[in-house]
Design brief:
Layout: H1 17-27, E1 29-32, H2 38-52, E2 60-63, E3 68-74, H3 84-90, H4 93-103, E4 108-118, E5 126-129, E6 136-141, E7 152-154, H5 159-173, E8 177-179, H6 183-186, E9 201-202, E10 210-214, E11 219-221, E12 230-238, E13 245-247, H7 251-254, H8 262-273
Length: 275
């Protein structure tokens, strides 16, 4: 998959769930240009600045962030009525429908939302990698994002390599369980670029562009040029928030390859109980 362009995984901004899912399962991402309208963007930008200055540690976590400022919000801990624009946006019915289809049961929709403001030139936002633990993410550009604004980018189709590398730890070491504190998990090879998949395709787009991506897809963001900035909100969705270990054959072992039904989830809980 070496000749993929941004156009290939750009979908209709109406957010057709079938179309977005096809793009995710083919390329690892889907891009919806201008999905958030001007009114929604104005409301979200106002809350964005409030979030970056929020010091209420019952739900907000201020992050030391070399490229600029960052804060994460645990949505289930938000007081009622706090950040209504953010809540409405990240609880959108189509986001929910896609996440439930892609992740299965249970599905925690955008349980954590990050606000990041990148302003420091020559400080890389994120080198190319896949996430050690799998989630589905929704990322929103709050302002126009061009080549000088540290655009997010992916290596299309590379999720296959990520899953092979993760599962190889189990196979090579004959493991049934992989604890998160295990040095083999910590040393996972999640940053060596895969061969045969081409280079990163940067995602540029206007304010309001929504990017949906599977974190097994190698992804990166570069640096902002002098006088430029990047402003994003990013929601994380998955079957649970934290993990002490991953069991072979469990949801996190399968990652995004297939969704779990209620019966699958029940079997998973039963296996964990008697492990």
């Amino acid at each position: 998959m070496t000749d993929v362009t941004l156009k290939d995984f750009t979908v209709d901004p109406s957010f057709n769930v079938d179309e977005v899912e096809r793009s995710l399962r083919t390329y690892g991402a889907a891009v919806l240009p201008g999905w958030a309208d001007a009114a929604m963007l104005a409301s979200l930008k106002k809350e964005f600045e409030q979030i970056l200055n929020d010091r209420d540690d019952s739900y907000a976590y201020q992050i030391k962030y070399a490229p600029g400022r960052a804060c994460s919000i645990m949505r289930d801990k938000l007081p009622k009525g706090r950040y209504p624009a953010l809540t409405g946006f990240f609880e959108h019915p189509r986001m929910k429908a896609l996440a439930e289809r892609y992740i299965g049961h249970p599905c925690l929709l955008n349980y954590e939302v990050y606000a990041t403001h990148e302003v420091k030139p020559a400080v890389a936002v994120a080198p190319a990698h896949f996430d050690k633990l799998w989630t589905l993410k929704y990322m929103l550009y709050l302002k126009d994002t061009g080549k000088d604004d540290a655009p997010f980018g992916i290596i299309p189709g590379s999720f296959k390599v990520a899953r092979e590398r993760f599962r190889a730890i189990f196979e090579t070491n004959n493991l049934m369980y992989l604890p998160m504190q295990d040095e083999r998990y910590q040393a996972m090879n999640n940053s060596e670029l895969p061969s045969g998949y081409g280079s990163v395709v940067d995602i540029t787009g206007p304010a309001g562009t929504l990017i949906v991506f599977d974190t097994d897809t190698f992804h990166h963001a570069g640096t902002v040029a002098p006088g430029h900035e990047r402003m994003i909100l990013r929601g994380h969705s998955g079957p649970q928030i934290t993990y002490a270990k991953v069991r072979k054959g469990s949801r996190q072992w399968w990652r995004g390859e297939r969704r779990f039904s209620r019966i699958d989830a029940w079997k998973d809980r039963l296996a964990e109980k008697f492990s």
